[in-house]
Design a protein that fits this description.
Blueprint lengths: L9 E6 L26 E8 L6 E4 L9 E2 L4 E2 L2 H10 L5 H14 L18
Antiparallel strand pairs: 1-2, 2-3, 4-5
């Protein structure tokens, strides 16, 4: 049985029913990473973690463009990682990157001058 892509999702609630909220004018000079919720409003949505970088992803129900999805690891990915995935075709989950770095650190422990001692993560499968 195939698992649901939203299985294990968290849930984000922004409740401004009793606060002045946030208006576009308040954040005109600052980029906002989430929804702008005005006075007297609430916002509720599922929240996941990008499998490639582990950033939080809010599954905004009002989103118009397609959500980034990696078929190789069968997970949603954030917009930044999806752009890399589309350009390179590579699936590099953060856990894989950490494993490579740990292996290199162990291999070159005590050899900081070795030319291969500096971690490099290749974007290949």
């Amino acid at each position: 049985m195939k698992h649901s892509l939203t299985a294990g999702a968290g849930y984000l609630v922004i409740d401004h029913r009793d606060s002045p909220g946030i208006t576009p004018a308040d954040v005109a000079h600052v980029p906002v990473a989430g929804p702008i919720v005005g006075a007297g409003e609430t916002f509720e949505a599922d929240a996941l973690t990008c499998s490639h970088c582990e950033r939080g992803i809010v599954l905004n129900p009002a989103r118009v463009r397609e959500r980034g999805y990696c078929a190789k690891c069968d997970h949603y990915v954030c917009d930044a990682c999806n752009a890399i995935r589309v350009k390179t075709g590579a699936c590099v989950p953060l856990r894989q990157t950490i494993d490579v770095l740990q292996t290199q650190a162990t291999k070159f422990l005590g050899q900081p001058d070795h030319p291969d001692a500096h971690p490099r993560v290749l974007l290949t499968d």
